[in-house]
Amino acid sequence: MAKYRKNKIDGAFTEECARIIREVKDPRVAGVMITVMNSDVSADLKFAKVYYSVLGECDEKELSRGLKSAVPFIRSQLAQRLNLRITPKITFVRDEGVKHGAEISALLKSIEADLVDDDEDAEEDDE
Q1: What are the tens digits of pLDDT across the range 64-94?
Q2: C-alpha 118: how far from its chain's center?
Q3: Exposure winner among 34, 38, 88, 119, fewest CB in 10 A?
Q4: How many angstroms from the chain centroid is the CA of residue 12?
Q5: Mapped to the 3 state alphabet, what secondary structure does 49-108 carry?
Q6: Distance of alpha carbon 117 from alpha carbon 59, whole angstroms
Q7: What DSSP designation does 44 have?
Q8: How far does Cα 46 stand from its chain's mean position?
């Protein structure tokens, strides 16, 4: 499969999954702010990994169970909305990239604050 076609399918799959997840009625999923970050559909269109991130606190086990139980609904909606011969089997994978990015940002800010404090201390010593 050409790379541009795979990228197009991945993008469409990501967008539709994000829309469909908002329609899921399961309270384990509906009560949580889920962002679909990316998806990776295999070349033969039989399997798909959907990478998601969660905003706020939630019970990870309950959320993963809720997403797993919503897979048949999500697949049926994808089959209706996307014009694909085969609707892939979906696996949800939690993406920790946003969390790691926030931690790195906080570390960099603390280092910057320490450097500013050191510079101010050095200026006071010079006077």
Answers
A1: 999 999 999 999 999 999 988 889 999 999 9
A2: 39
A3: 119
A4: 15
A5: EEEEEEECCCCHHHHHHHHHHHHHHHHHHHHHHCCCCCCCEEEEEECCHHHHHHHHHHHH
A6: 39
A7: T
A8: 21
Q: H or E stretch including 48? A: strand 47-55
d(CA 63, CA 31): 10
Q: What angle is formed at CA 51 by the lines to CA 92 and CA 21, rounded to 5 degrees?
A: 65
First vs last C-alpha separation in the chain: 69
Query: Hey, what's the torsion of the CAs at 98, 99, 103, 105, to 10 degrees?
Result: 20
Residue 55 phi, psi dihedral angles, 5° rounding:
-95, 125
Token pair recorded at residue 83: 């014009």
The H-or-E segment that residue 35 falls in is strand 33-41
Query: What values do phi and psi take at 85, rounded to 5?
Result: -65, -40
